[in-house]
Structures are given as C-alpha cells and as structure tokens.
Amino acid sequence: ITRQVRVFAERGERFEWKLHAHDRPPDLPRRLRAAGFVPEDEETVVIARVDEVAGRPLLPEGVSLREVTDRRDLDRIAAFEQTAWEGGSDHGWIAESLEAERTADPQGLSIVVVEAAGAIVCAGWVRFERGTEFATLWGGATLPAWRGRGIYRATVAYRASQAAQRGFRFIEVDASSDSRPILERLGFSAVTTTTPYVWSPPTVPAAEP
C-alpha cells in the first residue's frame, strides 16, 4: 500500500485499489482507509459463458450502435459520462485513459456508443484479456430517460459477440446494483463482490502572493 501511494503521489494522480471480498489479509479495508483511500459503492462480480450472452443487438427504432476510435468520440463519451452520473467527480480522465489504452494495444479494447438523434445515450467498452479465457465489460451507463428499453442489454450482446469472434469463453462484469438484475436475467452468475477504494493526491494550497 505504501509503495503504491508513493508512486502515485509522485505522479500527482488518483488511482483505484479494487478490493474483492475474498482478498487477504482480513483487515485490508482498514489498512486502505488508514492510508487515505475512500471506499465507493460495492459492486458484484458476475460471470457468464460468452455463447449464452452473445447475439444480435436489438435496439429501439431510431437508435443506433457503433464502434468508435476517434478522440472526438472519446471526448463525447467523457462528457456523456458526466451527464449520465449527474455530475459528481470529473470524468474528463476517461478520454485520456481510453485513448492511451487503445494506442498501447489497439486489439485489446473495443469501445461502443449507442446514439439517438446524434446524441450518446449509452456507452461501454470491452477488454480482451490476453492470456485468459475472459473478456471484461466496462462502462454501460445509460441516460435515465433511455433506461428500460433494452439498450444496455443490446451493448452486452454486441460486446459478447465481439468476444466470441476472438475465441473468448467467458464474460466478466463488475456490476452495479442497477446492472446486476439485468445481467442475471441474461444468465450471469454472481461469484464475489468488489469495492473500489480510491486514493487521490492531497490538495496543495496555492502560495501566498
């Protein structure tokens, strides 16, 4: 913990320690809090077979899904995430992070958006974890006005199909309380829980004039 905090403090960057329910030692949550980490909402790790989830995405009329790679679209995703989560922490880092990841390994990440009337209403991405049988789903936020129409479900089916085409056998998701019921209806099974513990650099006050 001390080593990681030191590295990110030197870089002036926030970072997340993803704590799973089965992690050891048992007092790890206390140790993280003592080091300045702040726990966020608990998520449930769910897993499904790719061949049971993959399929043609079914979208409402007037809604389309496409893969994106351009920085302009990544900036649009960052702005969308800010809206979808109704403010909160700054989501501007998402564009930088996704662009850097794609630059390092273009085949290891696929990003999709769902749009209506030219505006993003849902966005998600899938990571193809090299050396494993797992692809992992991330993002998936949907604007409140567009929830309950099968849009998130369509992105899951599409990304699972991408994983199937690459020979992956399983899909894993760290599911929020909103996503978990949808994913379980699609055949995902819960295996553990995870809690993001986030460390942020301390604020350095401006020097006196």
Mean pLDDT across every amino acid position: 93
What's the Cα radius of gyration?
A: 18 Å
Overall spatial form: globular
What is the helix tally? 7
Largest sheet: 9 strands, mixed
> How do the SSEs run, as a string of H and E?
HEHEEHEHHEEEHEHE
Low-confidence stretches: 204-209
Quickly give the structural class: alpha+beta
Helix fraction bin: 25-40%
Estimate the strand proportion: 25-35%
Task: Tell how many strands the DSSP assignment holds.
Answer: 9
Describe, in short, the structure shown.
Helices cover 33% and strands 31% of the residues. The chain is built from 7 helices and 9 strands, in the order αβαββαβααβββαβαβ.
Structure characteristics:
single chain, 209 residues, alpha+beta, 9-stranded mixed β-sheet, 9 strands, 31% strand, globular, disordered C terminus
Describe the structure.
The chain has 209 residues and is α+β, with helices and mostly antiparallel strands. It contains 7 helices and 9 strands, in the order αβαββαβααβββαβαβ. It has helices at 2-11, 28-34, 50-53, 71-84, 93-104, 151-165, 179-185; strands at residues 15-20, 38-39, 43-49, 63-68, 109-116, 119-128, 134-142, 170-175, 189-199. Strands 1, 2, 3, 4, 5, 6, 7, 8 and 9 form a 9-stranded mixed beta sheet that branches. A hairpin with a 5-residue loop joins strand 6 (119-128) and strand 7. It starts with a helix and ends in a 10-residue tail after the last strand. Residues 204-209 have low confidence and may be disordered.
